[in-house]
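Q: May I have one protein plus its fold?
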Amino acid sequence: MSVSLKGDKEIEHVPSIRRKTLRVNLNEHIYGTFAEIGAGQETVRNFFRAGGASGTIAKAMSAYDKDFSDAIYGIEDDQRYVTESRLKKMLRYEVELIEDRLSRKKHPDKLFFSYANTVATIDFAKKFKGHGWVGIRYQLDSLEDYNEIILHIRFHQKDPKLQQETLGILGVNLIYGAFYMYDQPKELLKSLYDHLDRYQVEIDMINFSGPRFMYVDNRLMSLQLVKNGMTDAVMFGADGFNVLPAQVLYKKNILALRGSFRPVTKVNMDMLERSYEMFTKENKVEEENTQVIFEITLSNLRAEGKIDERDFLDRAELLCSLGQIVMISNFQEYYKVVDYFSRFTKNRMGIAMGITNLIDIFDEKYYRDLSGGILEAFGKLFFRDMKIYLYPFVNQDTKEVMDSNNLKVHPRMKELYKFFKYNGKVVDIENYDEKILNIFSRKVLAMLANQEEGWEDMLPNGIAELIKEHRLFGYTRRRVPQKNK
């Protein structure tokens, strides 16, 4: 059963693939090349079929043979072909070729573009469903620099012919959106699924760049991918650009820290640093092959009702300033996070969390949709080589420090909890800073809102200055009452 990303009324107003290609073809200014590797020439085929393509298509090619492809675009350092680097080389090479071969004096109003994809479709054994990189480099004004939209896709269909057709439709949507929806990037993103469904293809990374996208925050575009159901998880780096999860996590030891980070506090960083010290001392864990991930769930972003994009960007800005890779996911349950990481690595994993998070893990209500209930979830959570690093909690009423030895789970879960604890799957974080255990993000936010003093001391170095400088989380400068004259 297919699940559409659009409502019925919205679908009625979506132009057909033929109408999209015809509108591009009949625009006398749009002119460029198509270079497609690995799945035929499915995108350009739609433009040829629509009619009027002679004024749009300068060249269509498929550099399918590896030697020919290398001769045209050069050899990649990793000698792979389905990579972002390969796609960018294709886009730039083809644009430079147009600029070199066509006179700007003769064609002053032409808007040049190059569309490219490099794809691996499903293999004969049907174990690897396939993936690919798709992009367009194009002008919206002949006197402007080029814009670029690059995305990564994962195929879900099990037939190579269907995958090729899906790629062709996606390519048309991208080209049409690039020229006619560039001023509405969120709508452009949604339009990539026109006449497609999530069961056919997944988009797990996208980046916009160029003069017309100067004010597009790619982290926000990442959020849209998860929010719109186009993928389950996305990542972005310290530079604010989206990164491909497979590239970040492939064959890595992974230490993940889930939280609201609203804002990131000294407790968050102490939890990370102490768990990192313990994790990297484990057998089979090499520090140089360890990747730290800060994860925010969509349910956390919806904690106040609907997703506040400004609030999301405030959190993202602070985490990026600390040099962290951030993951936004649709995984409320921890076992789904571990299952997701397991797609990319078989190496040891760790999750750092607080007491309340661990208690939630042992709450049966989160696993009612599983036929095997909590036992199935725990089988998935701890099946892999994974440990939970537990940060202590101070009871604000009794001042008692809680850890793995005195936390209270539901009576029915006691024996299950003991089993995992005494088998070394749950370990207490050591050498934590006792002086900061009373710091909570919600307390910092309350002090910020009430313009109270002292919240700055609860945050890592440099974070308070960023909050003040960029007025994050609704920060306003404290008013100093004036004395009566």
